[in-house]
Every structure is written in C-alpha cells, then in structure tokens.
Amino acid sequence: MIKPRxxxxxxxxxxxxxxxxxxxxxxxxxxxxxxxxxxxxxxxxEPGPGPAQPEPARPAQNPAMAPARIWFDPRGWPESxxxxxxDRRIVMVHGNLDGDAATRLCAQLxxxxxxxxxxxxxxxxxxxxxxxxxxxxxxxLDVVRGPVTACAGGRIEGPALGILAACRHRQAYPNALFVxxxxxxxxxxxxxxxxxxxxxxxxxxxxxxxxxxxVTGRETGQVRADARRNRLLSVPEAIEYGLVEGPATRRGxxGxxGxxGxxxxxxQGDGGGGDGGPGPGDEQPGGDGHRDGEHD
Length: 296
Hints:
Blueprint lengths: L76 H11 L2 E8 L1 H17 L4 E10 L1 H13 L4 E10 L2 H7 L2 E4 L4 E4 L10 H26 L3 H9 L2 E3 L1 H7 L4 E2 L49
Parallel strand pairs: 1-2, 2-3, 3-4, 3-5, 4-7
Antiparallel strand pairs: 5-6
Helix pairs in contact: 2-3, 3-4, 4-5, 5-6
C-alpha cells in the first residue's frame, strides 16, 4: 500500500529490484558496464564507469554481393581435384612459380615419369615464374621420358616462357597472351658476392633465351631484344613467332584416359593415336572417301 505524503509532494515509485543471474539486462536502454573481479566499488563522489555504448547496427548484406558458391562440399576439394587430374596425367600450374612451387611441380612430373612413358599434359594458366625456379622445371622436363604437351591460357610471361619452350608440344587457348620480358632480380651482400650473383644471373638468362631461340628458330639476340621491350604476343602472333605450335582445340587436346566425353573414341582404321588428329581411316574434309586425284 502506498501512503500519501504531504501536500504537493509527488509520489515516487519503488526502486527496481536487482536482476540476478547472467541473463541479458532487462528493459530498454544500454546495459551497464559490469565490474571486473576485484575492482572496488566507486566511492562517494567518484564517477562510475557509466553505461556502455550500444553497438552500431550492421547493415544487411546485399544478396547481389554475396559470394557465389560453385562447390557444394568445400572440404578438401582442391586436393581431391588435383589428385584426380594427376591420375589422368594432367598437371596444373598457375600463379607465381617460386622455389617451393617449382619443387612441387617437379615432384609431380617425376612421379608421372616413374609411372610410365604415357603422354603428360601440363596446364599453364596465368603463369609467372622466378628465374631459378623456371630453370629447375626446365631441367626436369628435359629428362621426362614421356611427351609433355603444354596448354597455355591467360597471361604467360617472363621465365615461364622457358617452361613452355621446354615442352615437346605447345598449344595455346584462345585467351592466351605471351609476354617476352626480362626477369627482375635483386641482390644484396658484399661486393664480391654481388659480382658472383650477377654472373650467375647472366648465365641463367643465356640459358633461358637460348632455349626460347632454339624452339622458335630465331637468333638469341633477337629474343633478348624482344624481351627488353616487353613484346606482347597474341595466339596468332605466338604461332608465327614459333613459340606455340597451334591453338588448343577439342580435337587437338590429348585424350584423357578414363574420362568419358573428352577423348575421341577409337574407330576402325585409327593408327592407335589418341591425340584427336586425323587418322588413316578418317575422312578428309570435303571428300567422299577418295584420295586426291582419284575418282570413280
């Protein structure tokens, strides 16, 4: 029961009961800052910690900006995907090829070489490489027994062109770009060490440009001059330059054993090839099955 006070004194409500337990603080407004264990209570006249500031509201995410999920089960899918490609003798390489990445690439190539001499397909996508790393892969490609077909896509630049040149067969996807450029190297150390490393870099550059000149049929000086001015080659220009043999097409890609739908089934009269090229029994375009010059 509320007892009335003197005339003119307003009625005051009872103070709120303390809220026990760890549940959220009831009622509107920000929750007060709790005291830390061992923290003394503020004395008379001392200001308390004050109420906490409310957290700013997070804006709702635009559904159009939400990241797309193209793989339903992301747990371990890159490893399993690369393993499946490796089982079909397909090796993927992309990004910047440093020493660690070159070691992994060499390990994959040597593993496939130990399994047999079947063809290997090297997928090069948007590849740049450090000079020592590229030369390491080039050395392994020289000793791999099976034929290696490089399929280049995206931007292939700098020493990565040496890896392309070290493959026995070289094809390019329609979106490929090739940049002949000199690699960037930096040294530090004593004067003697700098002179030694500069000489080593000069020898490695000679090996790189010499290999590109060998497969393109051009002079080493011309390749070096093109690299100094960062010459950009499209797919037709790279074919004319001699850097690649031709465009990568569905019929031109090597067959993938065990992967239906990509390899052309063998037909009677095929010469045992699985590279998608015309065999002895294939009909020639525009012909009726006769050789040139033969008619009924």
